[in-house]
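Task: complex structure prediction.
Instruction: return structure tokens for all chains below.
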Amino acid sequence: MNASNNMRLGPFEVFLPPEMVSPRLRPCGEPDFPGRLFVVEGIDGSGKSTQLSLLHKWLEFKGYGVVFSQWNSSELVKDTTKLGKKKKMLTPATFSLIHATDFADRIERNILPLLKAGAVVLCDRYIYTAFARDVARGMDRHWVRDLYTFAAKPAVAFYFRVPLETAIGRLVTARDGFKFYEAGLDIGLSDDPTESFRLFQGRIVDEYERMIPEFGLTVIDATLPVEVQQAQVRQIVQTHLDRARNLRVRP
Amino acid sequence: MRQTYGKLLPGMKLSDLAGKLLVVEGTDCAGRTTQINMLRPWLEEQGHAVLDTGMTRSPLAGDGIRRAKEGNNLGRVTQSLFYATDFVDRLENEVIPALRAGFIVLTDRYIYSLMARAIVRGMDPTWIRGIYSTALIPDAVFYLRLDVEQLIPRVIFSRGFDYWESGMDVFPGQDMYESFRSYQAALLAEFDRLSVEFNFETLDASADARVVFAQLQAKVQRVLDGDSRREYLRENGNFSRQYLHKVFEYAAATTMRRTTDQAVAQARQSNGPDRHWALQPAAAPFAAQTTRSFLEHK
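Output:
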């Protein structure tokens, strides 16, 4: 028995349940990397991916060693997620855990080693997506946050804020129909996919808004012209890269 | 009422889980499968409906984990979370519905193996406990304990050393035998620690399988006969200092959120009216005070 798990109460020694044991080191608590991590967040149709790809091209043009990582793209885990979504097997809890598994694989094999090596890493969606979606599905807010403590802290997390109706308008014209989990049909908000999507994304927006002060997200007004947003993003990124000393240069 | 280790999954209702959740834990080759294969027909013979389940048997993540383990690139955080996905899928879709239907659920390994493996791989114990805080507290955990020395011949003469069972991802650079020893010893140490914290019922698994089974039968029977907690207190019931210690330890280790008051009340009940106070008059006010400060601390 580890001595730190016990508490003395008068003459008695009491075994403490785990939640009373003081937290030890986090799994991957590397505080400072030579590399820099930038992530974009926002609901579907907020234009964040467009902005990130513009940023990517600009950084490459400037000669930085840039690597891009997308949400839900781990080779090890992808098939399982796909199976769960296709057969509608995922509950809020397993939806949360399988996405965390996917993210862990990318963090362990991709993002962390690259940051340690001094690369600029760009992520389309990051842990804040999981926080927003999982909590919107009813998972415990603290539980989800504790789940992702192995993540690296980004230099800047951009949140592309857009009114729900604008985002939905963009999506309805861009594709036909919403997918089952994307529209939150699994939690039964409404039988109509478009209505369910609206309600579900509304919850997600509420979660994002809550996270802005909690995690210091950098808000970009996603209703502005693409060029204006990009200029803001580049300016902020530039100040962070200027301060970084040991970045790799593309060969 | 049944409880979890602290957190509820969305939509999880604990009120009508009438069945019993029995866990068989132990290191690799400790004979868990053999025991479960004997327990199941024995329970069914008595008229109980039985569900048995175990690691990587979930329809969602089982195949994914097996595929991932074929390669050499499954990281430790990923591994822990993949297993957690498998566990929660079975918890929600097999274990809870079966308990609701009044089944006896026999599970080959539970969160403890998963925690031990993760902790041995350097994961933060608080982190991994947090993930599994949504797990149901079982009715009993039977821990088949085997020393590394006793384990080795079993492994050699059954299926041989396996990459993951030897913890080759934890101790790279050693050969399989050395790695197996280091890894299993670390796991065992962690298991022993968990066995106190989570109140395992330990069985010596080095004995003949039939001997172990007879012991297991007796323990399972006791769980089925009545409230295992009351049983525990009756067995250890003597309101001395040592006993008070047991009450606290018990309240902390098994139910986590059940109040110590209840545990004390239950102990009094099972011990007959006030006999124990008479034994040690000075203990009574002290016990009440300690209980209060213990609860405030929580």
